[in-house]
Amino acid sequence: MAALNLNMLTENASRLGMRLQETLSEHTRDLAIARGTGSAYLDNPEEKVKNIAKQLDSNSDREKLEAMKRLIALISRGRNVSEFFAQVVKNVASHNLEIRKLVYIYLLRYAEQEPDLALLSINTFQKDLSDPNPLIRAMALRVLSGIKVPMIGSIVVLAIKKCAADISPYVRKAATLAIPKLYHLDSSHQPELIKIICTLLKDQSPLSIGSVAVAFDAVCPTRLDLLHQHYRRLCRTLIDVDEWGQVDLLNLLVRYARVMLPRPIPANGANGTTDYEVDSDLKLLLTSAEPLFQSQNPAVVLAVARVFYYLGPPTDLPKIVPPLLRLLHISPEIERVILTNLVLISSALSEVLAKSYTRLLVRASDPRQVKKDKVRLLRAVINAENYPSLLREFICYADDADDELVADSIQAIGYIARSVPESTQQCLTALMTFIQSKHDVIVTNAVLVLKSLVQIRMQQQQNMIALGGLPPQTFSPLEIISRLARRIDDLRHPKSRACVVWLVGQYAASAVPAENGIPVVGPEGIAPWAPDVLRKLAKSFMQETAVVKLQVVTLAAKLLVLCPSDRTIVLLNRYVFSLARYDLDYDVRDRARMLSSLLAGVNANIYGENDDGHEDVGGVVLRREQVKVVLFEGKASPAEDVPKDADDDHGRFGSLAAITGRWTGSDNYLPDWLEEGTESSLRDSEADAPPPPVYASQSFARSAGPTSRASPVILTPTNGPSPSGSFVRQEGAKAAYMDLDKFYEDAEETEESEEGESEEDGSGEEDEDSSESGSGEDAASAEGEGESDEEDEGEDEDEASGSSHIQGTTT
């Protein structure tokens, strides 16, 4: 017997082992197929491609699924597989959901090339619109609207109408996304689509409301009046909408607010501060959008910042900066977008950004555009407190390999010297150090910045002297000009050489400070370094560029006006004007001809005494003083950087135009604020109406007494308020219902009273009325404490009927 049991156990164990082995091998094979799906289907030799048609006609779902995966893989590689369209269409009604998904993707790709064959599957799509599975219904509508065949536009409209009233919010969202596709295919259906959009605007589901904003912008972007009744509900629903739906909905609400709502009005505050009166509807939008600053989606945060920047009062603008700075370290792409938008608002939020300037420092690994934007932001936040740190940063950036970053950094150093007077000496020291550099880019930009600083400082000194004051002794502009003049041979960039030549000619007549107590004076009051610069440039005149030649001719004319009797200067002028007269550049020839005519009253023989080609054009001959005024006076100082008015950018902040530099069709161009917004009553809806007040009936108030409280109809009463229509008991009747035996005794007495009342004529209608009016509370008072002795006979009958009502509700 024991041997028999052992044999049975051995046989069962072997069978179980074989079953486990088969199951394990089957699962292992499926796992191997799943792992190899990504690469196996991308490697499609011609033999497997020829076998696709046979697999699509197979009866096995596995072979069909494998064939469809190979087709989608071929499509992803850019290969045309439209030859299998007929075989794919046959599987559009497959019961396998995976196969049907891939068939839908294939049809979306090639339905436009094979419109006749695609129309054969429309009946299947229409049947799928009634499928119990909402995923199938949404997918069918998506494919139906994606078939770009204009002749089926009416069918698609009917399908969208049907799905817009679907019970599933996912299907309604698919219907909303199908509206822009149909509108771009055939815009003649716009009136019908607007009606569908109006219906979808009433949708209470947050899942589809974001897509409604997309459809609204695509079909009727100017019909903002359709949003009146839905504005407040959309603001309240904003927090529950999906992330990308929040972006679209916020952009739509921003446009609505700019057109329909009044802008914040400044008002005098209590402590002398400026407060702003904000419309209640506008405040609702700002309050509803503010929690979205904590969103994990950078697009949502940027959209909310756009709302506050263009709609909020100036006192709310500092709320924008911390959420945007939080996004800088998510990814390089997001950092690029955020920095570009911060540059647009840097002038308005410079004080707030200055507190976090360390988060805007340039890193060596930053792309070129990111470096440029960071330098512009650091330049915008410069103040008297942080300029030493930023000056060191800009000096370090000047050694970068990127020429644009070097130029921007040196320009920023000049901006520090102009905006913070205490930093002038440090900035000049850095700029003079840059002049000794071996890199042309550094030297050129340093010279350009020094030119503007010298010109501004000379203008300031002249103004202070005219007012009777003494110029500051921080630095001498003429000393800088002399150092630049001595290094004219080291400057190779044409623009920097032209700047130095202009400075030498413009300030050649200025008094040069004495060296070691000995005044340094050139010929007849001219600075000693001015004729030497003209000598060097006259020698290399033919090798100079046109921009330098123009300044050399002007320098020669200025020195001749300042010292017409000096023989060296006259000879240098004759040589320079002779070369310029026959120069290849017509601008140089015209400049020489104009100046020679202007100098006719100073030196008539500018080209020499033996010049026969000089023709007398006549006209008025100016004296030396008049020529000096023409050449030296009226030179405007360099213009300061004036930020653009942020109110005129029409919504560039937070839009694609901030990145591309131009407006596109997908951008939300914001109109100007209206003088007065529309009436607030237009936005009133049934949801905003206050609930109607609840009034107690006359018998209810009389039976309850002044000390009664309303409570719901329950066995054990409470002290809280009760809804309308509930009976009211007196306080003394509270203990009557605490004892269950006492309650059943009261129920038996109530049955006896009902039998007596049924014998009375007309008492039924009276009992029914008293039961509905909630007068059963008096019965509770009579049963508990016997406090109704002073009531009349009619009220006793009401009490009896009220007891009947209580019994019916408790049994």
From TrEMBL:
- Source organism of the structure: Trametes coccinea (strain BRFM310) (Pycnoporus coccineus)
| UniProt GO cellular component terms | AP-3 adaptor complex; endomembrane system
UniProt cross-references to PANTHER family, sorted A to Z: ADAPTOR COMPLEX SUBUNIT BETA FAMILY MEMBER
Q: Indicate the principal place this protein occupies in or around the cell.
A: membrane
Which stretches make up the Clathrin/coatomer adaptor adaptin-like N-terminal domain? 49-599
**Bias-annotated ranges (Acidic residues):** 746-771, 784-800
What is the designated name of this protein? Clathrin/coatomer adaptor adaptin-like N-terminal domain-containing protein
Compartments it resides in:
Endomembrane system
Pfam families the UniProt entry points to: Adaptin_N (PF01602)
> Ranges of Polar residues compositional bias?
696-727
